[in-house]
Amino acid sequence: MEQRKEASIINVRDLNLFYGEKQALFGVDLAIQEKEVTALIGPSGCGKSTFLRTLNRMNDLIDGVKITGDVVIDHENIYRSNDVIKLRTKVGMVFQKPNLFPMSIYDNVAYGPRMQGIKNKKELNIIVEDSLRSAAIWDEVKDRLKTSALGLSGGQQQRVCIARAIAMKPDIILMDEPTSALDPISTLKIEELITNMKKDYTIVIVTHNMQQAARISDKTAFFLNGEIVEYDDTDNIFSTPQDQRTEDYVTGRFG
Amino acid sequence: MRQFKDNLLRVLIWLSAFLSVAVLVMIVGFIFYKGIGLINFNFIFGDYSPDGGGGIWPMIVTTIYTVLISLVIATPIGILAAVYLQEYAKQGRLVRLIRFATESLTGIPSIIYGLFGAVFFVTTLKLGMSILAASLTLTIIVLPVIIRTTEEALKTVPRSYREGSLALGTTKLQTLYKVILPSSMPGILSGIILSVGRIVGESAAIFLTAGTVAAMPDGILSSARTLTVHAYLVTQESGDIELAAAVGIVLIVLILAINLSATYISKKFNKATNK
Exposure of B197 by Cβ count < 10 A (0-12 exposed, 13-18 middle, 19+ buried)? Predict the structure, then answer.
C-alpha cells in the first residue's frame, strides 16, 4: 500500500462532495497510478462521474457544490490552489457525447494550444498532426482538415475530441463514458486507442460497461451510493472480489 | 361526428392561413397600386422640393442615418448587457429586476419614448431636434429587443460547448469570445434585423425628436425627416395618398432588402462555422 502511494499521480483523501444539502460523495480515498488505465464502475447515480469531475474541477461550474478533503495531483493540492486553468491544461477531459465546436477539424484540435498563446503556424500544424495521429484518426481526416468537424461520424468525432485533449499535452486524461453514444465498431476503435495511449498518459475512465472496464483497465474502483466499495487490480475485481456487493454487481445481479 | 370535427378544424386552419396571407397581399397590393405610378429615378434619387414635385432622397438618407447610428450604439451595449445577465450575473433578485425592466421597456408605446427624448436629449442635453437625438431615443427603444434576443441566443448554446472549452484550460472570457458568441451569432443577428425593422418603422418618437425638416441633413446634428414621418406628414397635410403610398413602396423594398442581406450574411456566417 505504501509503495503504491509513491508511484501514484493522483491522490484523493477523504473527499466529500455536496450538491447544496445533498451529499453525493462520502469520504472517497483513491490513489491512481501513473500511466495506467483506471476504470470507475458502478450503477447510475453512484457518484462515479461526479468524482471524475472533481479531478479537473469541472464541478466548479455548478452552483452550490461544496467539496471537502484533498485531491493531490502531481504533488499539488488542486483545491488549495486557485489556478484552475493550469490544472485543466494538465488534466484533459473527454465527454460522454462528442462535443466538438462548430469549426473545422483543424481549428478544433488547434483550439487549446491557440488559447495558450501558440500562434506559429508550423508549430500548430505539427501539434494538430501529432495529436490526430495519436488519436488514430489522422488518415481518415488528413484530406479534410479544413472542413467542419460536425460532418464526421460520431465515432470519428469522439476520436477528434481525444485528439483535441491530447493537443494540450496533458499528463492525465479523464474520460466520462466516452463510448456510451457510439456503435460497437467505433467503441472498439476507441478502446484500442485507450490501450495504446496509456504508455504516454494516465487515464481515468468512467464506464457503464463492465466488459469494457475488464478489457481496457489496469485498476478498477467500484462505486456505490457515493462511496468506493472496492478498489483493486481489475483482474481481482472481476475474478475474486472481496466485497459481496462488488461480486453482485460484476456478476450482473444488480445495476 | 369525429370526421366532421376534423374537417371543420381543417377548414378553420386553412381559412386562418389564407386570411393572414390575403391581408398581407391586399395591403402590399394596395400600396403598390396607388403608389407605383410615382416611382421613378428622380423620385427616389432627386432632392426634395416643397411644391410637391421632386424626390425623397433626403428622407432615405435620414432613415439610413438613424438606422446606422442607433445600431452602432445599441448593438454593443445590448450584447454586453445580455452577456452580463446570462453569463456573469449571479441569478437572483437584481437580475430578475433588470429582466423585468427590459421586458417592460418593450411594452411602452413609442410616443412615450418620443416625449422622453424630446425632454432629455433635445432639451436637457441640448442636442436640439436632430438625427442624433432621434437615434439616441431609438437606441433606447431597440435596446431591450437586442438584449432579449441575444440572451435567448446565448441560452441555446449547448452546455457541452462551454464544458468542452473550459476543460481545455481556457478562461471564461476566451470561451465566451471564441465559442459562445460565434455560435449564438445567428440569433444575435436576427435581433439586429428586428431592431432595423423597428427603427425604420418608427414614426412618433422620431417626429418628436428629429423634427420634420424636409431637406438633406447637413450632419447628425441637423433636424431631418425620415421616410415614415414623411409618409405621415404627406397624408396629413395634403391628403396625397398616392405620394404616401409611393413612400410606402420605398419603405417596403428597403426593409425587404435589409432582411434579405441580413439573412444572406447570417447564412454565410453559418457556413463559415458549420461547413
Answer: middle
Per residue in A104-136, pLDDT tens? 999 999 999 999 999 999 999 999 999 999 999
Phi, then psi, of B50 in degrees rounded to 5? -70, -15
For A204-234, how does the pLDDT look when each residue is reduced to its tens digit (9 = 90+)? 999 988 999 999 999 999 999 999 999 999 9
Facing B167 at nearest CB: one of A56, A86, A147: A56
Can you give the pTM of this predicted structure?
0.81
The closest CB to that of A115, out of B161, B174, B273, belongs to B174
Residue B275 pLDDT grade (very low, low, confident, very high; cuts 50, 70, 90): very low
Asked if B200 and B228 count as a contact pair (C-beta separation under 8 A), the reply is yes
A223 occurs within a structural domain: yes
Structural domain total, chain A: 1
Tell me how far apart the alpha carbons of residues B173 and B165 are, in angstroms, rounded to a whole number.
11
Evaluate whether residue A156 is within a structural domain: no
Closest-CA residue of B relative to A86 is B169
CA–CA distance, B82 with B77 (Å, rounded to integer): 9
> B39-274 sits in which CATH class?
mainly alpha
CATH classification at residue A186: 3.40.50.300
A154 inside domain? no
Q: Which range marks the domain in which residue A239 is found? A: 2-102+169-250
Q: Which residue of B has its CA nearest to A93?
A: B167
Residue B169: which of A88, A99, A103 has the nearest Cβ? A88
Chain A CB within 8 Å of residue B165 CB? yes
Answer whether residue A116 is part of any domain.
no
Q: What percent of chain B has pLDDT over 70?
A: 96
